[in-house]
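Retro notes
What went well: the complex prediction finally ran end to end.
Inputs used:
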Amino acid sequence: MIEIENLSKSFTLHNQGGATIPVMAGAHLSVAPGECVALTGASGAGKSTLMRMIWGNYLAASGSIRVGGLDITRAAPREIIALRRDTLGYVSQFLRVVPRVPTLRVVAEPLLSLGTPEAQAEARAAELLAQLNIPERLWSLSPTTFSGGEQQRVNIARGFVHGYPALLLDEPTASLDATNREVVLRLIEDAKARGAAIVGIFHDEAARARVCDREVDVTGFTPAAARGAA
Amino acid sequence: MRDFKDTALLQVEGLTKRYGARIGCADVSFDLWPGEVLGIVGESGSGKSTLLSCLAGHLTPDHGRVLYQGRDTLAMNEPERRVLGRTDWAFVHQNPRDGLRMGVSAGGNVGERLMAVGARNYGAIREAATDWLARVEIDAGRIDDRPRQFSGGMQQRLQIARNLVTGPKLVFMDEPTGGLDVSVQARLLDLLRGLVRDMGLSVILVTHDLAVARLLADRLMVMQGGHVIEHGLTDQVLDDPQAPYTQLLVSSVLQV
Amino acid sequence: MTDHAYNFAYLDEATKRMIRRAILKGIAVPGYQVPFASREMPMPYGWGTGGVQVTAACLTPEDTLKVIDQGADDTTNAVSIRKFFERTGGVETTTHTSEASVIQTRHRIPEEPLREGQILVYQVPIPEPLRFLEPRESETRKMHALEEYGLMHVKLYEDIARHGEISTSYAYPVNVEGRYVMDPSPIPKFDNPKLGGNPAIQLFGAGREQRIYALPPFTEVVSLDFEDHPFQASKADHDCDLCGCATSYLDEVITDDRGGRMFVCSDTDFCESRRSAGHRGRLSPEEMA
């Protein structure tokens, strides 16, 4: 479902003397449907960078990233938008929403953009919010005013509201209490069971051990490691 | 539902406009697809407003083509272009006063485009106006008030209703949230996002506000000195900008 | 009586030719406002300078002229214009609609149906029907050229929204031959139905605004309206108190300080003709006596 080949990435900082910083080289990764792969490595090793490249948020310098057959590195913006709508979900650590939009609406939005009727989309959103123990009185409020843990759960609900065939999870259990952590792990297990290919970053080792089939250490994708291997 | 079809709604090829020796916009090309929101960002004088005016037919470019559903809008005669301007196209001005008739009631403002395309049933026009006022969150009781009695945010929402009442396919927006308070902006952004999604609108949005661009636009074009210097998925352009100017632009903005 | 210091009908022949060209163009393009080089006339703007120039351009020595002001032959304005052409043209004048070959009017169409060969000349203060909502002349011309008349209905919409009905009661806009929207001058909308299909030539002159437009005989003229608020030619719900006519357009006349009032035909010639034919109204002097 997710196929990464010989991927490299560098940042050119034009406003700092044009310095070019290579951050990744020769990355390979393959994730099958129903499989969950954890990205590991020290902070700054490039876990988030790789996730963002799969999401299409960072441009690749070379190599390819195929998600559901579409090569992200060569796709037109509208193809990536369509991919994000239908195929690829992303639970980031940060909730970025239009202020004032009610939580229920924020969570239902991915379904609405797929053309799901409003009532059906909101029913599904309500189901997830209830599962994640967001009190119903908060559903009509904007999540921008919520605590960090609540925002994180809203983000998760939004990421799981549609059954994406591929999912990117960035620290999905961080800042959650035991009860909600358990809910999220079940959601991940359910997603795997229906055949979703998942790439995740989990600092929570027990969670990683429970839901992940494999670990891939991104330290191996740093330019230095690539030079060593060659 | 936003349905990406196989043909572009708008195809722009080599659009160039000069003001004497000065460049307004130079060699701009892009395709806009049904249901897509294209943001054009850049500082004042970057050429984004000139480009928008050329696209909307308010200015005549020196070179280039603007194909709407395959028809060259620059080769159209003026009547055809004006018909397009009140049916398939709409234009939302930064200043509501430029887009509203200030001496005409809110209902009359919304109804004008309907009447312009031949609506002759008062009851039906009024019903459509009432419905649209509700959609832009203006109380139905204000239907007979004139826009000058409205707040800036309400005026802008009224301008949007007036433009969308005939169900256009392509909307040009020039800094639609400019000059509004931040809280009012948020409400307008939310409204616009919903309308874009529900009506499957294609939008060309000119803004200098990167936060507005991030929330509304699918794609971004960054302009500098009349040229498009970067073009891509909105979050990619903002989070991994490639051109020196874009990096400067993004880093100059307070994080939102 | 003719004052020979002036050319026939006051204007020089070159000017009349210029005006006739404008009139002919107006007749060729019904409802279209033709610009013309309006001359200074020996009367103030607003007193019919446009109408007088059109009349002067149409008159021949054989013509018989009638002049009415809101239906009346005997008001200062009507009398002055009649005298003006008696003196500068030596033409016959009349107060009888049927006897006149040229009728200059301010704000009315005579009750008595016009016939082929007659010319009705209207005095027009503001010829542009779109001016109410669009002050730019460049834009209104473009709107006429491109038949963009939605704005006219916005005006009617505003009427209904504010008053519950189309409250425009005079200068009610019309569409001519399915093409140009035209201001019929401030005639009461009661007169609008007489604009269309009329056997006479109708000419409109706006002196200050320098525009001439025309309706050739038997032109199709439709008053603008909404399907659910159709045009209605309204008048005061009374009979004429002098001649008893139930179908003519009436003026309300205050008769004393105690609320006394009467309704009389605005068309004085029409009313007098009926009375001489023996028709009587509620307050006819003969009956009061």
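What we learned: The first strand of chain C starts at residue 34 and ends at 35.
What to try next: split runs per interface for comparison.
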